[in-house]
Write a structure and sequence with these properties.
The chain is 19% helix and 33% strand. The chain is α+β, with helices and mostly antiparallel strands.
Length: 174
């Protein structure tokens, strides 16, 4: 991964004040030298992750309303659930569920989302944060013929995580 040539986030946007305060309080601020920032704070999804994400049968998405009340949702649908548009955009379908529209309702008020991709076969994790928009009857929804709506995420930050503490699981044969 050291040979990945990616744009690092704008220096003023690497960490917000709360993160910086926590790093100072628990004495980890010296861990974040320029080399580590380049290795672990990306502004786009590297090409070598595109297929892995598109093959993911599920992921988790965190949203919050305008007041910061959070919701975390499982998004499943099998392989093909996610379409990488380019290194800074991906889309996924919104399937009708219970009709509560918790994720979409939050996105309508606050576009900031956090997506977590976990591969339980090898423990790989990737966090992708960005801004989401809801699409109906346009070029984004054309990727997902079976869905009434699709969500487009404009990537702002990508953070790979280590495999520590991720249980290795195998798919159960039906």
């Amino acid at each position: 991964m050291n040979d990945i040539n990616l744009k690092i986030k704008n220096k003023t946007q690497e960490f917000h004040p709360g993160e910086l305060n926590a790093q100072q309080k628990w004495h980890t601020e010296t861990l974040w030298n320029e080399e580590r920032k380049q290795k672990l704070l990306w502004s786009e999804i590297p090409q070598q992750y595109h297929d892995r994400i598109e093959q993911a049968p599920f992921f988790f998405i965190a949203t919050s309303d305008i007041d910061g009340h959070c919701d975390c949702s499982f998004k499943g649908g099998g392989t093909g659930l996610i379409k990488i548009i380019d290194s800074t955009h991906f889309a996924f379908p919104d399937f009708d569920g219970n009709g509560a529209f918790m994720s979409i309702g939050n996105i309508m008020q606050n576009p900031h989302v956090g997506c977590l991709f976990i591969d339980f076969a090898d423990g790989a994790r990737l966090r992708v944060n960005g801004r989401a928009s809801i699409h109906e009857n346009d070029e984004i929804t054309q990727y997902f013929k079976q869905a009434k709506r699709a969500i487009l995420v404009s990537v702002e930050q990508v953070v790979p995580n280590c495999k520590a503490h991720v249980p290795l699981l195998s798919a159960k044969e039906n």
